Automatic annotation (TrEMBL):
It comes from the Eukaryota. This is Uncharacterized protein. It comes from Populus alba.
Length: 575
């Protein structure tokens, strides 16, 4: 019988044998490729069928969809219809429709030096303007001088908006002369992270691929600030395509230790606010870009509940993760800015009017606040002394792939917004090849099925965190990577608060004024940003860490920044 079979086999023409061999080889090769997708359970016949049908059916659909929505990079248009909502409850907070009631400051006098003016809070500067001790034009001149003085060292500014700033300052001063006062941001200078579009000025996204890009779009957050009388003085550094602190013009430094880099893509807002180059700035976070640079540069910054601030006109990484938030001198300043920029953006499907209570009116004595093993205990003790009930706390959840879920979500959604950029090989020009280029090439082979499975796992994580979040707020490390991923996936708010300083590593033998900042995070449930803000204000009301000034003018008697500077080890995933 064997001989008969062998005769029949060998009687097949060579051309047929070759075709069989080619099919077997092709099937084997495809199966190897399927291993990369964790789908190597198909036999050769099924793999070949899949390849044929994908070519006939899938590829034309891919091409048609790309033609519809991917011609422009950055996710500025054609948002996804899949909307993430972080809400845990339908509970309504009292005074949901009201704006916050700001404290009245009395006896504020104009300081004698520009340095002292530069480090005043928003509320203090606002009182100087309201009482006509200083004009918006004078403030613009002060802060533009500081921006241009320190930027050569810090590399935190991409574009100065002098002409616009003088125009807006003049309008603010004229309104005040007519008796019209718009509130505490009236005439106050500020900066925007350069992923936020302003007509007539470049919006570079920090990338050499887009360094000459001008978007004739007025970002929603810019509209809100303009309507409150705030004055834009600069577009501040975003890490390239909102990833870490490297951009097409250099790498942004930490004002508290200019040998270090600022880390995180909201590098410009953090460094500029820390150095007194602007009273406040707007940054963004997808996965650590508010918390990391705020902690490194020693400023107070708020990552709000997802959906609190509209994102129209802002470069998008991940529609289900991106958030805008303020970098400020204090929690009170963050409260003022948040009150201005929050609300429903009609063109951002994820934004909503979140019913926040007034942070200035929260009775913190009625709150129970947890503290984790890595919390700064000074914060815990101060709040306890003010009547807050404090308890040890830990968020418990069984989902063990938090960082992986974040990675999948962010990278797939980012690639959807920069599909054309990758297909035209512009990623070869990217400033740091181990960042977006590597991640987005890997994202190209994440199956749609597994992206959806990641979102199902994300939902399970949210349910477990909701069940475990048994306190009104908790205090813990703001830069723990697992917690950064968790907080962004769940969408809950955190405010980063400076809590002190320590000596830098390997200081010069004769000493230095450079310091390493110490910070902590105060976390609240989604839609309860007012709780985190109230607790941070209570802590800062009796401490002065947030009022300290970095030593950018005087490092010490024999301290000179080395050139080239020490490189801080690169951290993964800081969009």
């Amino acid at each position: 019988m064997r001989e008969v079979l062998e005769i029949k086999f060998w009687s097949i023409p060579d051309s047929e044998n070759n075709k069989c061999s080619e099919k077997i080889n092709k099937g084997s090769q495809l199966r190897e490729a399927f291993k990369m997708l964790d789908a190597n359970f198909f036999d050769d016949t099924k793999v070949l069928d899949i390849a044929r049908e994908a070519k006939e059916l899938n590829l034309p659909i891919f091409a048609a969809n790309r033609e519809l929505v991917t011609s422009e990079n950055g996710g500025l248009h054609n948002p996804s219809c899949l909307i993430f909502n972080p809400e845990w409850t339908d509970e309504q907070v009292e005074n949901a429709s009201n704006r916050f009631s700001y404290p009245t400051l009395s006896g504020i006098q104009r300081p004698k030096t520009e340095e002292d003016i530069a480090f005043m809070s928003i509320l203090e500067l606002g009182e100087l303007i309201r009482t006509k001790q200083i004009t918006s034009l004078e403030l613009v001149q002060i802060f533009l001088r500081r921006l241009k003085r320190y930027n050569p060292v810090l590399e935190s500014v991409i574009t100065y908006t002098d002409e616009l700033a003088y125009k807006q300052a003049k309008e603010a001063d004229e309104l005040l002369a007519k008796g019209v006062y718009l509130g505490p941001l009236h005439g106050i200078p500020y900066g925007l992270k350069d992923i936020i579009a302003v007509p007539g000025y470049k919006t570079t996204w920090g990338s050499r691929s887009f360094k000459d890009q001008v978007l004739n779009i007025e970002a929603w957050v810019y509209k809100r600030l303009k309507s409150a009388g705030a004055v834009l003085v600069a577009k501040l550094v975003s890490g390239s395509l909102a990833y870490d602190d490297i951009w097409f013009g250099g790498r942004t430094r930490n004002p508290w230790n200019i040998e270090e880099f600022s880390t995180g893509s909201s590098a410009g807002p953090a460094a500029s606010t820390s150095a007194g180059m602007v009273p406040f700035a707007i940054g963004s976070e997808t996965a650590g870009s508010i918390t990391y640079p705020a902690a490194r540069c020693g400023v107070t910054a708020l990552r709000p509940t997802f959906g609190t601030v509209g994102r129209t006109g802002v470069m998008s990484i991940a529609e289900s993760l991106d958030k805008l938030g303020p970098f400020c001198r204090s929690a009170a300043d963050c409260t003022v800015v948040l009150d201005t920029i929050r609300g429903k953006d009609p063109d951002d499907l994820s934004s909503r009017y979140i019913p926040l209570d007034d942070p200035f009116s929260v009775d913190i004595k009625r709150l129970t606040v947890g503290y984790t093993d890595d919390a700064e205990m000074e914060v815990v003790n101060v709040l306890k002394s003010k009547g807050v009930k404090t308890v040890p706390f830990k968020l418990n959840y069984t989902v063990d792939s938090v960082q992986g879920i974040l990675n999948f979500t962010m990278d797939v959604e980012m690639l959807a917004h920069f599909d054309e950029w990758q297909r035209t090989r512009q990623d070869d020009l990217y400033e740091a090849q181990d960042q977006w280029p590597t991640e987005l090439r890997r994202a190209r082979v994440i199956p749609a099925v597994d992206y959806v499975q990641a979102q199902r796992a994300r939902r399970k994580l949210i349910q477990e965190v909701k069940k475990s979040f048994t306190v009104d707020a908790f205090i813990g490390n703001a830069t723990d990577w697992e917690r950064v991923c968790l907080g962004n996936l769940v969408g809950f708010p955190v405010i980063v608060v400076p809590t002190g300083f320590k000596n830098i590593s390997n200081p010069p033998s004769e000493g230095t004024r450079r310091r390493t900042t110490i910070t902590t995070g105060i976390y609240a449930r989604p839609n309860h940003d007012h709780i985190a803000l109230a607790l941070a204000m209570a802590y800062q009301s009796v401490t002065y860490h947030h009022k300290q000034r970095p030593p950018i003018d005087n490092l010490g008697p024999s301290d000179i920044m080395p050139y080239p500077p020490t490189t801080i080890p690169h951290r993964r995933l800081h969009p």
